[in-house]
Amino acid sequence: MCTGASKGINLKSCVDFGKNSTEVNMVQESIPLIELLKEEEGPILVATHENPDADALGSALALCEFLRKKGKNAFAGCKDSIPHFLNFLPGAEDVIRLPVEELFSLAIVVDASGFYRVNAEIRAIKRARIDHHIGGEFYGEHDYIDPEAPSTTALVYKLLCAWDRTAIDERIANNLYAGLATDTGFFRYSNTNAEAFSLAKELVELGAKPHWVYTNFSERESLNKMRLISKVLDTITMHEDGLVAGISVFDRFFKETGCEYADSEGLVNYPRSIDGVEVAYAIIEKPEEGIWKVSLRSKGRVDVERIARSLGGGGHKYASGCKIRVRDYQTAMETLLRAVREELVNQGFLVKQTVG
Ligand SMILES: [Mn+2]
After folding, report:
1. Does residue 157 share a domain with residue 27?
2. What are the pLDDT digits (tens) for 201-257?
3. Torsion-angle region of residue 91: left (phi > 0), alpha (psi -120 to 50) or beta?
4. What residues sit around ligand 1, an ion, with C-beta below 5 angstroms?
5. How far apart are CA 157 and CA 52, in angstroms?
6. Ligand 1 centroid distance, CA of 297 (Å)
7. Global pTM?
8. Distance from the CA of 287 to the center of ligand 1, in angstroms?
9. Containing domain of residue 177, as a range?
10. How many domains does the chain have?
11. Same domain, residue pair 29 and 118
């Protein structure tokens, strides 16, 4: 199963850019967002979704740094402090915490289905979105969205290529590469197609360091995190004859291990790795918001975006998420498992059982 291999993100024009400059101008497409950015003289905010991942932060940092090189007054912003596992990304130390008082001339939300995902108020005259999630909010002709793109950084790269490829330096390339590598599970997930490798090759040629990104991202875990994983693995539960597996991350686990919410990133991959599992979930307690955050992953057959959407969330076919707004764990689990079961029936993985 390979998402987007047929349609794909059209990086071919981009891929050809390096070969010779006449060709570049011939294949260069006009992207309305670039024209807007070129003309922009006021402050620009590039905002990530809350609890940023490497694709969101890498996109914001790459775009922001590029814009500064072009003489723009650009800022990368995020509601949360930068999590430890992303603090190596070039420029991460300069990210501003949202919300801020300032009125921006232009605000761009990256790797998110809308500004609501920033979860902080943003004051801006113009708005745009760069993203690869399905659906979501649209802000007009300056949006740059392609759900087939392997990562949002792939879209940012395409944008920067169409503007001025020579301004992509090692720092920008590493940020773009980090988003691509992590959103494809280091080139293992079903969105890993030929374009993803072409893009990776180009970014490496532009100075991205795959080993450096990998070791910084994946091999700087704390002992506390290991203790959190140990607690979380104890909660693994199987459902629907082994088609579904999940973990529960209670708030007390963070307190008991000295971890924080950001440390729950990626834990959903443990239940997914079990033989026979098609749908994996992580249900994470967020008492300060009165919700349970749910991450859903598919091994490639079940469309989990539809499960997330039925619960008011969204994302990608094989990786999505939602929030369940109840206090108690029991109700949250019932809500989640009911939605999972319904979609497994709808998608033909389970036969509907008649009750009574
Ligand atoms: Mn992404």
Report:
1. yes
2. 999 999 999 999 999 999 999 999 999 999 999 999 999 999 999 999 999 999 999
3. left
4. 55, 111, 152, 183
5. 19
6. 14
7. 0.86
8. 26
9. 12-218
10. 2
11. yes
